[in-house]
């Protein structure tokens, strides 16, 4: 699949890039995508929910009533879960929700996500660019020139570019990522991918190991 390379004015440079069929042209695997998105979302959870159980409450351990014959449920001390203000039975505890996926599974998921975007013609390739200073207005002009303004945008860069990142940071629905850290969730969550020429080379190197 060939795509025209545009400049930041939205003009065709006359050059074309060929998207690697082994990355952008595979049959997407939906189950692997599900697993990788689930892994990403699970890793975002703080896992800090905590409720006090019976032994963690401060209160007297005096037995409040007789074991039998009271007409109600058995209850021991004031911290009993059957009483208002008592401990919670099997309450949440701090935990790590993240889980592991094999490297090949994660690579297949990223290939599947990128293939979906290629099928949707939602990939724009632009020549490498830079800003002399952070300026949101300049970045907005680029999105208008590329006709991707008003859509969820994921800009993929080959390396850290502070000026470009700061220029896009305040724009809602716009995210900047490195080609080396791209993941399935971010790709699927975007309406359109804007990729620089060198970021394509980086993705080829990473996913074709």
UniProtKB/TrEMBL annotation:
<comment type="similarity">
    <text>Belongs to the universal ribosomal protein uL4 family.</text>
</comment>
<feature type="compositionally biased region" description="Basic and acidic residues">
    <location>
        <begin position="50"/>
        <end position="59"/>
    </location>
</feature>
<feature type="region of interest" description="Disordered">
    <location>
        <begin position="46"/>
        <end position="78"/>
    </location>
</feature>
<keyword id="KW-0694">RNA-binding</keyword>
<dbReference type="GO" id="GO:0019843">
    <property type="term" value="F:rRNA binding"/>
</dbReference>
<dbReference type="GO" id="GO:0003735">
    <property type="term" value="F:structural constituent of ribosome"/>
</dbReference>
<keyword id="KW-0689">Ribosomal protein</keyword>
<dbReference type="GO" id="GO:0006412">
    <property type="term" value="P:translation"/>
</dbReference>
<keyword id="KW-0699">rRNA-binding</keyword>
<comment type="function">
    <text>Forms part of the polypeptide exit tunnel.</text>
</comment>
<dbReference type="Pfam" id="PF00573">
    <property type="entry name" value="Ribosomal_L4"/>
</dbReference>
<comment type="function">
    <text>One of the primary rRNA binding proteins, this protein initially binds near the 5'-end of the 23S rRNA. It is important during the early stages of 50S assembly. It makes multiple contacts with different domains of the 23S rRNA in the assembled 50S subunit and ribosome.</text>
</comment>
<dbReference type="InterPro" id="IPR023574">
    <property type="entry name" value="Ribosomal_uL4_dom_sf"/>
</dbReference>
<dbReference type="GO" id="GO:0005840">
    <property type="term" value="C:ribosome"/>
</dbReference>
<dbReference type="GO" id="GO:1990904">
    <property type="term" value="C:ribonucleoprotein complex"/>
</dbReference>
<dbReference type="InterPro" id="IPR013005">
    <property type="entry name" value="Ribosomal_uL4-like"/>
</dbReference>
<dbReference type="InterPro" id="IPR002136">
    <property type="entry name" value="Ribosomal_uL4"/>
</dbReference>
<comment type="subunit">
    <text>Part of the 50S ribosomal subunit.</text>
</comment>
<protein>
    <recommendedName>
        <fullName>Large ribosomal subunit protein uL4</fullName>
    </recommendedName>
</protein>
<keyword id="KW-0687">Ribonucleoprotein</keyword>
């Amino acid at each position: 699949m060939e795509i025209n390379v545009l400049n930041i004015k939205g003009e065709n440079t006359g050059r074309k890039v060929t998207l690697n069929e082994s990355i952008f042209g595979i049959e997407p695997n939906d189950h692997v995508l599900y697993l990788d998105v689930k892994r990403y979302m699970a890793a975002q959870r703080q896992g800090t929910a905590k409720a006090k159980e019976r032994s963690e409450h401060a209160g007297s351990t005096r037995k409040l009533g007789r074991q039998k014959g009271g007409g109600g449920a058995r209850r021991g001390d004031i911290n009993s879960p059957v009483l208002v203000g008592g401990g919670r039975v099997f309450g949440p505890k701090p935990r790590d929700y993240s889980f592991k996926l094999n490297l090949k599974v994660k690579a297949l998921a990223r290939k599947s996500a990128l293939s979906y975007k290629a099928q949707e013609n939602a990939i724009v390739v632009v020549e490498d660019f830079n800003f002399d200073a952070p300026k949101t207005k300049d970045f907005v002009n680029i999105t208008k020139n590329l006709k991707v303004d008003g859509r969820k945008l994921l800009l993929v860069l080959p390396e850290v570019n502070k000026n470009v990142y700061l220029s896009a940071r305040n724009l809602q629905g716009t995210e900047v990522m490195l080609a080396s850290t791209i993941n399935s969730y971010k790709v699927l969550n975007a309406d359109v991918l804007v990729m620089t020429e060198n970021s394509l080379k980086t993705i080829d190197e990473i996913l074709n190991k």
